Amino acid sequence: MIENKAPGKDITEEDMKSKFPLAAKKAGKEASTFIAAGVEFGGALIPVFAGPNMVESEELIVETAKAVKARGAHFLRGGAFKPLSFPYRSAKYTETREQGIAWLKVAKQEAGIGIITEVMEERFLDLICDAADILQIGSRNMQNYPLISAAAKTGKPLMIKRHFGCSLRDWLGAVEYAMVEGNEKVILCERGVSAPHTHRSSSRFLLDLQVVPAAQEVTHLPIAVDPSHATFWRSWVRPMSLASVAGGADAIMLEVHPDPENSAVDPLQPIDFASFGDLMKDMERVARCVDRTLGVHI
Length: 298
What we know:
Mean pLDDT: 93
Number of domains: 1
Shape: globular
Radius of gyration: 18 Å
CATH topology: TIM Barrel
Distance between the termini: 39 Å
Number of strands: 10
CATH architecture: Alpha-Beta Barrel
Strand content: 5-15%
Structural class: alpha/beta
Strand order of the largest sheet: 3-4-5-6-7-8-9-10
Order of helices and strands: HEEEHEHEHEHEHEHEHHEH
C-alpha cells in the first residue's frame, strides 16, 4: 500500500488515480503481457535485446544479428539515428541514419530476428516503423511528450528509457503519454541515474536496480534494464546483468559488438560475441532461480 501523504516526488495513491491511471497497477491486473515480433513480454520469459550502439555498416550489423540470434537474443538493437552528446561528426563518430535503417532491414531478413531502434524525430517515424518491431524512446527524449504521443499512435510497441535525472514518478508520467493514445504495449527501461559516485567517476551513471521492484509495486508494465549504458565499463556489464535478472528485470538490453575496442561509439562498454554467449547462459542459470527463463539451453 502506498502512503497517501508521501514527501517530495514519491508516488501517492492520488497519483495512481489521476496522474497515471493507465500505467498504474490495478487489482486483478498484476502484470501486463503482450507480443512483439512473436516474443512475449511480461511473462516468465526475459527477452534480450543485443547489438551495437550504432549501425556502422551492413556487413557489421548482419554479422551481429546472426551472432546474437545464434546465442539466444530475441531482438537486435542498433542505433541509426543517434543522440550523440556533441554536434561534431567524423568518419567514425557519426550516424548512418536512413542508410542504417536500410541495413537493419537487411539484418532482420537475413537473421530472422526482431528489431528495436531509437526514434528521435517524428518526421522519420514511417521510415523507422518499416524496419522496427519496437520503437525506442531514448533517455534524452523521455520527456519529449509530442514525440512519445506520435510514436504511440503508430501502434508499435514502445520502450521508454528513464532519463538519468528523473524520478519514477516522472518516468510513469511519460509512459502515460503513450498509453493515453491507446497504446498499451509499453516497456520501461532503466539505464542508470546521475549521482555522486563512490567508485569511478568516469562510469557516468549508477545502475538503479532498486527501481525495478519499486516500479513493479506501482505499474503493471514490464521493466527492462540496460547494464551496458549504465555502467559504461565492459567488465561491469556481466555482474550487473546477472544482478538485474536476479532483481526481477523483465527484459535486458546489452551492447554487443564483433570488435568492442573499435566500436564507433562508446568502445569501453560493448562485449564481444563469445562473452555475450557466456553471459546468456549465466543469466539463464540465475533466471531459473527466480522462476524465469531466457529460453537458453544450458
